[in-house]
Amino acid sequence: MMDRPNDCAPVATGGKTLTKDQAVAILTARVSPIAGTETLPLEAALGRVLAEPVVSTLDVPGWDNSAMDGYAIRHADLSAHDGCLAVAQRIPAGAVGKPLAPGTAARIFTGAPVPEGADTVVEQEVCEASDGQVRIPLEIKAGANIRRAGEDIRAGAEVIASGTRLTPAHLGLAASVGVARLVVHRRLRVALLSSGDELALPGEPLKPGQIYNSNRFVLMGLLQTWGCEVVDLGIVADDLESTVAAMARGAREADLIIASGGVSVGEEDHLKPAVERLGRIEFHQVKIRPGKPLVFGEVQGRPLLGCPGNPVSLFVTAVLFARPLILRMQGVAGELEVRPLRIRAGFDWPRPDRRLEFQRARLERGADGELEVAVYPSRSSAVLSSVAWADGLVQLQPGQVIARGDPVEFLPFAELFY
Ligand SMILES: Nc1nc2c(c(=O)[nH]1)N[C@H]1C(S)=C(S)[C@@H](COP(=O)(O)OP(=O)(O)OC[C@H]3O[C@@H](n4cnc5c(N)ncnc54)[C@H](O)[C@@H]3O)O[C@H]1N2
Ligand code: MOO
Ligand SMILES: [Mg+2]
């Protein structure tokens, strides 16, 4: 096979390797939210991105209601009747009582509307009830135990902004204002390409020199957790024509193409020339470890992200770069990257890298019971067990030396997988 130049000048950087932040800025600036929405019942909208805001037509709660099982009273009646009131009515949740007659109490239950004229609810534990009467301690505070109309949501308020990825709480919130259907962006279609002559699918016997395609499953899983529709382009042979053909199919069938492998400099790496054949490369290196060779470009009008084939590098580049790219295309508004938490290091890091480094990490309890973060013993980008072991990534700045006990930056998977 012919040797070929492996470089293509990155447009935005004058040929320099990009920092992670520069790369994310370019990725997210080059794409825009996809067109197309659908209207879904709440039951089907979990994880989707809202395309039209939810505005409440109601106050929630709709009326003053009781926060306790007990007695609704007019506070001024207590001193006038020495704390002893006749129980004149019973108001369970779902019912509406009569106006409170002077000198009486209403038996009331949590969530029931406070009757007109009552200004206080007294929990039953402090009351003594017998023979249709209730005795209430005089020191009860006026206005106690009432949830006020509109204290959660006011009619006319925007309760969920457009661009929000819907969590269970958002679905509940929409339901609480009576909204049954939501307008969401259509699912982003992402084509997945696994390059490598050595790859076989689990379930197949391995021929000599073959390995199982694990990247496909890592990427599919991530794409599914991010709410994408996956178009699997399968395993693509290490030759230019097959790579070009797979990419062209990806560009026809999906909004975005994500490839694994073949992004490095060997003559078995065909991703870059294939992108150049069909479109252009915007950058091909980022100053991080692992994951330095990372290709971003455009193929027949579709964005393409080529992640390195080493399994850990693939994972790291997917959560750092594919995620914000996807969120932007899905129409998610606001912050697209996860902000690192600062957590105490449970490890020493005496020999830092010159690149921004991502270590597989796990939250643990130190000897004193305080939260700290441990890193996996191997730094190898080929050890996928490290990712399964971890519950986040530690982010180490170029040249940053860490002594046990220092604060370090931690990116939790719980956020990266969302
Ligand atoms: N001379 C140089 N060689 C390499 C460099 C370099 O700068 N100069 N960079 C190294 C780094 S760093 C990385 S990362 C890798 C990137 O590799 P590629 O993206 O070209 O990927 P491949 O060569 O196809 O594969 C690398 C490695 O990963 C395994 N692999 C690939 N696909 C899968 C898959 N779907 N499932 C599981 N494992 C996969 C593959 O068998 C190789 O072992 O390049 C270095 N080399
Ligand atoms: O960047 Mo490679 O990703 O260091 O193994
Ligand atoms: Mg390679």
TrEMBL record:
Q: What are this entry's molecular-function GO terms?
A: metal ion binding; molybdopterin molybdotransferase activity
Q: Which GO terms describe its biological process?
A: Mo-molybdopterin cofactor biosynthetic process
Name the CDD domains on file: MoeA
Q: Which UniProt keywords apply?
A: Magnesium, Metal-binding, Molybdenum, Molybdenum cofactor biosynthesis, Transferase
Question: What cofactors does this protein use?
Answer: Mg(2+)
**PANTHER family, alphabetically?**
GEPHYRIN (PTHR10192:SF5), MOLYBDOPTERIN BIOSYNTHESIS PROTEIN (PTHR10192)
Q: Which family does it belong to?
A: Belongs to the MoeA family.
The protein's name: Molybdopterin molybdenumtransferase
